[in-house]
Design a protein that fits this description.
Mean pLDDT: 84
Largest sheet: none
Distance between the termini: 55 Å
Low-confidence stretches: none
Number of strands: 0
Strand content: under 5%
Length: 241
C-alpha cells in the first residue's frame, strides 16, 4: 500500500502540473494543431487555410495524411467545448492517464510481482518529474505538450508497441493480432508523419531483437502486417510532396 500511495501522489503531482502548465503555455505548434482545428470549425473546410497568415491556400494533400488536428476539432464540435480547452486541458489530462496505463502494462510485462511493478512505476514517475531538462526530453512531451500528436506518439503509442510486440511475436496462430496491429499502425500514422517512420523502426527492431534472443526468425509476418499502413503513408507522402 505504501508504494501504491506514493505512486498516486507522484501521479497527482504530474496531473496538476500538466493541467496547470499546459493550459497556460503557448508554443509554435499551436499553429499546426489549435489554429488548424479552430479553422476547420469556423470555416467548415479542412486544410485550405494557412494557419500562420490566415490566407486561403490550395488544398494540402500532404496534410490529409495526418488527422490529429481534425480529431481535436471533432471533439470540440461534438462537446461544445472550445478547441483551446480541449487541446490544452482535457486531452493532456486524459492522455496522461492513458500513458500511465501503458506504463503499467509495460511493468506487468517486465515484473511478475505486484510490488516490483509498483516500485517500477514509482521510479518512472519520479524520473518524469525531474526530467524536464530539455524541450526534446520525454518529460517535456508528457507533461508540457501532450496535446500534440508527436507527443502522444512518443509517450503512448511507441511505449505500447514495446510492450505489445514481444508478446505478439513469440506466439503463433493469433487471428485478431493482425487487426490489432493495423489499428495501432493507423493510430501512429494519424498523429504525425514521424509516426510512420518510427513505427516501422520499432516493428523491425523488435523482430531483430527477439529473433536474436530466440536464435530463429520469428514474428516476421506480424512485422510485415504492422508496417503495411506506415509504408503506404510514406509512399503517398512521396507522391504528393
Amino acid at each position: 500500500m505504501g508504494y501504491l500511495a506514493l505512486f498516486f501522489l507522484l501521479l497527482g503531482i504530474q496531473l496538476y502540473f500538466t493541467i496547470f502548465y499546459e493550459s497556460t503555455v503557448w508554443s509554435y505548434d499551436d499553429y499546426a494543431y489549435v489554429v488548424s482545428s479552430l479553422d476547420a470549425i469556423t470555416s467548415d473546410h479542412m486544410y485550405m487555410t494557412d494557419p500562420i497568415s490566415g490566407n486561403n491556400i490550395a488544398f494540402s494533400y500532404k496534410r490529409v495524411l495526418i488527422s490529429w488536428d481534425i480529431y481535436i476539432a471533432f471533439l470540440s464540435k461534438v462537446s461544445g467545448v472550445s478547441v483551446t480547452t480541449i487541446a490544452h486541458t482535457i486531452i493532456p489530462a486524459a492522455f496522461l492517464l492513458i500513458a500511465y496505463l501503458v506504463y503499467s502494462y509495460l511493468a506487468a510485462q517486465l515484473f511478475e510481482k505486484r510490488e516490483n511493478q509498483l516500485i517500477f512505476m514509482c521510479i518512472l514517475s519520479a524520473a518524469f518529474i525531474f526530467g524536464l531538462y530539455s524541450p526534446y526530453s520525454l518529460t517535456f512531451r508528457l507533461l508540457v505538450t501532450l496535446w500534440q500528436g508527436k507527443a502522444v506518439l512518443s509517450t503512448v503509442v511507441i511505449p505500447f508497441l514495446f510492450g505489445f510486440l514481444p508478446k505478439v511475436y513469440t506466439q503463433e496462430k493469433q487471428r485478431r493480432v493482425y487487426l490489432y496491429l493495423m489499428i495501432i499502425s493507423m493510430a501512429a500514422c494519424s498523429f504525425t508523419m514521424m509516426g510512420s517512420g518510427m513505427s516501422i523502426a520499432v516493428y523491425v527492431a523488435m523482430v531483430v531483437v527477439i529473433s536474436l534472443y530466440q536464435r530463429r526468425i520469428t514474428g516476421l509476418k506480424y512485422c510485415i502486417c504492422g508496417c503495411t499502413v506506415p509504408a503506404i503513408q510514406i509512399l503517398l507522402y512521396l507522391i504528393l510532396r
